[in-house]
Amino acid sequence: MTTPNGDRSDRSPWNWLLIVPIILPLLPFLYNSDEPRLFGFPLFYWLQLAFIAVGVTCTTIVYQMTKRRR
User: Fold this and answer.
1) Using CA atoms, how far apart are residues 23 and 54, in angstroms rounded to an integer?
2) What is the mean pLDDT for each group of 10 consecutive residues in the chain (70 residues)?
């Protein structure tokens, strides 16, 4: 089933927020050190967990701002 272009809901500017969790882990200067450590874990490991939280947050914001009101 196809929808006319006028009914598409994927043209929101909020969708640009989804580029943040894609680009953020690709910046090597963010994890170019061993310090600071958090609970004994080097920066790289806990930063990866922080990237997951950023991705979930961005996805939730985009979903809430673009879902169709009924």
Assistant:
1) 11
2) 59 91 92 84 90 96 83
